[in-house]
Amino acid sequence: MSDWQDGWYRPEPGQPGTGQVPSGGAGGGRAAWPEQPPARRGPGLPATGRPGPAGPGTGRRRQSGHRGRRIALIVGLVVVVLVVALVGSYFYVDSKLNRSVTLPAFSGQSAGQNWLIAGADSRQGLSQQQIVSLHVGDVTGTENSDSLMLLHIGSGRPVLISIPRDSYVPIPGYGDNKINAALGFGGPALLVKTVENVTGLQINHYMGIGFGGLVSVVNQVGGVTMCLPKALHDYDSGANIPAGCHNLDGAQALAFVRDRHSFANEDLQRIEDQRAFLKALLDKATSPGVYLNPFVALPFGSAAASSISVDQGTHLYDLIQAALALRNPQTGTVPVADSNYETANAGDALLWNRSEALQLFNDLKNNQQVPADLLTGTTVG
């Protein structure tokens, strides 16, 4: 075969391409095509610059890289959506809080943070049929506090103290009376002022809930489990609950926390049951099964926010703090000297053990550990 073909010099196999014309070849003296610089290598290209087979795994690496970026993008979008939903839900629930309570001025000093939690015998929002079915009585007139608890959040374990509703104390502007009458005399502000005066503690936040609100909150969270050592049968409250563990719905829960006639010590046992129920309710409300399920968490948060009355400085974050503190607090009742104290103006009342009560509240006021003998604990009746 000729060394020349179509005007291009082709060296013999194995012969270096010098670009020189062999002597004596046809077309002697004709210049050969100038030698070109080597082509730059790129992915999948040989040194000649012609496309060649891709390197091992190059296509797979490119595909996996695209797939990884798509997955990262999807995950990022999901996170953004969740964050926006959570932030939106927070502000939505926070906006539904009924901030109708104005706290009175406090001139003393008190460490930590104190909540006054009041269960009022309010029938607001209940139909006549509900009033009958819930056994709450068709009562008109003033609204009293059916239960009263003080939650102290300090540097140590939270402390939850029940204040018996029949406690005989001075009510500013009304003389000595049962403490539950303060709510009816002057609303939450007077109740807070009364508690501050007799305990020396500043009340930083107030939370109040009526009968209908409790029923709604319990139903929205899917019921609350309580374990009873004996059956409860009380016509007045409507309690008819067998012994053992039961998931109480809203109506059953209301009957349980109002029942006092099933016990020899009546109201003193009832307030222990109320503390136990409150803890069980908050355990359920702050469990992953509730707060990680938007179809339960949002209706529950909305129902709770619209069912309770709080002070003007309370936000959802404060309520979450209180809820977490109520999951495992130290508990007790204000020390009692006489649970059948005869009064001239209020019938049978309850008289505090002044020296022990003063020690209890002074320890809380100074954020100190309360002696164990002043904390009676909580046992379901």
Could you describe the 3D structure shown?
With 381 residues, the protein is an alpha+beta fold. 37% of the residues lie in helices and 20% in strands. The protein contains ten helices and 17 strands. The protein has helices at residues 58-95, 128-133, 181-199, 211-220, 250-258, 267-285, 288-291, 294-307, 316-325, 354-365; strands at residues 4-5, 8-9, 98-101, 113-120, 145-153, 159-162, 168-171, 175-178, 205-209, 224-228, 232-234, 239-241, 244-248, 308-311, 330-333, 336-342, 348-352. Helix 1 (58-95) packs parallel to helix 8, helix 4 crosses helix 5 and helix 4 (211-220) runs antiparallel to helix 8.
Shape: globular
Q: Main beta sheet, described? A: 7 strands, mixed
Query: Which whole number gives the mean pLDDT?
Result: 81
Sheet with most strands: strand arrangement: 3-14-9-4-5-6-15
Give the CA-CA distance, first to last residue.
Answer: 114 Å
Helix content: 25-40%
Q: How many whole angstroms does the radius of gyration measure? A: 39 Å
| Class per helix and strand makeup | alpha+beta
Q: Helical region count?
A: 10
Low-confidence stretches: 1-10, 16-33
Number of strands: 17
The sequence of SSEs as H and E is EEHEEHEEEEHEHEEEEHHHHEHEEEH
Beta-strand content:
15-25%
